[in-house]
């Protein structure tokens, strides 16, 4: 996913965080990679650390437009469920971006539209 860095921030953990914009919205996430430049564009992917729960962190959404929003406390994504493996590894397509995370509980059917809310998100620069 192509992202444009709006602002470089320092997260409370001492890691860099960035406010960024993409074709599906604007959000804030921790940054994994060399320090980015404000105003520059990067190819990146979003990873969600930890384990999300079906039915609370991940809920059904109406089919429609992929979206992304959120500040430092949480990232909210809307997209189509692409894959769920038996061990909980899950992929949701949000626009052109594949968001990867682990989930527990009873998964929704593949192809369902979902809204997920993550307390932590990592924006990883691709091609490093």
Question: What report would you give on this structure?
Answer:
It is a single chain. By secondary structure, the chain is mainly beta. The protein has one domain. Helices cover 0% and strands 61% of the residues. The chain contains no helices and eleven strands. Strands 1, 2, 3, 4, 5, 6, 7, 8, 9, 10 and 11 form an eleven-stranded mixed sheet that branches. A hairpin with a 4-residue loop joins strand 6 and strand 7. The protein is globular. The two termini are 15 Å apart.
Strand content: over 45%
Q: What's the tally of helices?
A: 0
Total number of strands: 11
Low-pLDDT runs of 5+ residues are: none
**Largest sheet entry:** 11 strands, mixed
* Residues in helix, %: under 10%
- Please, how many domains? 1
Structural class estimated from helices and strands: mainly beta
Distance between the termini: 15 Å
Rounded radius of gyration (Å): 14 Å
Topology pattern, helix = H, strand = E: EEEEEEEEEEE
Mean pLDDT: 93
């Amino acid at each position: 996913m192509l992202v444009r860095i709006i602002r470089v921030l320092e997260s409370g953990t001492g890691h860099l965080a960035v406010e960024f914009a993409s074709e599906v919205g604007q959000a804030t996430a921790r940054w994994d990679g060399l320090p980015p430049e404000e105003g520059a564009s990067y190819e990146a992917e979003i990873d969600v650390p930890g384990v999300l729960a079906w039915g609370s962190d991940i809920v059904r959404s109406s089919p429609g437009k992929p979206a992304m929003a959120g500040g430092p406390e949480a990232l909210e994504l809307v997209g189509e469920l692409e894959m769920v493996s038996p061990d909980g590894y899950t992929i949701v397509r949000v626009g052109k971006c594949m968001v990867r995370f682990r989930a527990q509980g009873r998964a929704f059917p593949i192809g369902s539209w979902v809204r997920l809310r993550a307390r932590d998100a990592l924006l990883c620069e691709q091609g490093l």
